[in-house]
Amino acid sequence: MQAVYNEHVNGFQKALRQAEFLYREVSVTDCRFNVNLDVYDGRMLDVAEISRLKAEKEAVIIANEDTLVTTPAATMVDEGVGQVEVADEEADGVEEDAAGDEVDEVEE
Questions:
Q1: pLDDT value for 86
Q2: What sign does the CA torsion over 101, 102, 107, 108 have?
Q3: What ranges does the record give for the region Disordered, renumbered to this chain (predicted)?
Q4: Is the pLDDT of residue 50 over 60?
Q5: d(CA 50, CA 8)
Q6: For the residues 45-67, what does the mean pLDDT come to?
Q7: Quick check: 22 and 31 in contact, CB under 8 A?
Q8: What is the rounded average pLDDT for all residues in the chain?
Q9: Sign of the CA dihedral with 83 first, then 84, 90, and 93 last
Q10: What DSSP line would sit under 86-108, residue for residue?
Q11: In whole angstroms, what separates CA 56 from the centre of its chain?
Q12: Are 50 and 38 in contact (CB under 8 A)?
């Protein structure tokens, strides 16, 4: 009994969304007033199409969440550390060159 009631309430709410979407341009007796249509994302679409679009949207969200979860954070840290180490090695080489220049100047 409750399921039937909920189905009627949902159908009525769908009809109200259609009426609001169409405003006064369409009469409820007009053939364009279709109980198999509903308003989704600002457009009047078939209920089956809405279900498909919602499923696609959820699949994209789940795929994005999986990508975020499976991307290892350590890779980003290792790259950053590797760059710092290279920079330190380059700095050491520059310091050694500068020290070598000083020794050359003293010898002259």
A1: 46
A2: positive
A3: 88-108
A4: yes
A5: 19
A6: 89
A7: no
A8: 71
A9: negative
A10: HHHHHHHHHHHHHHHHHHHHHH-
A11: 13
A12: yes
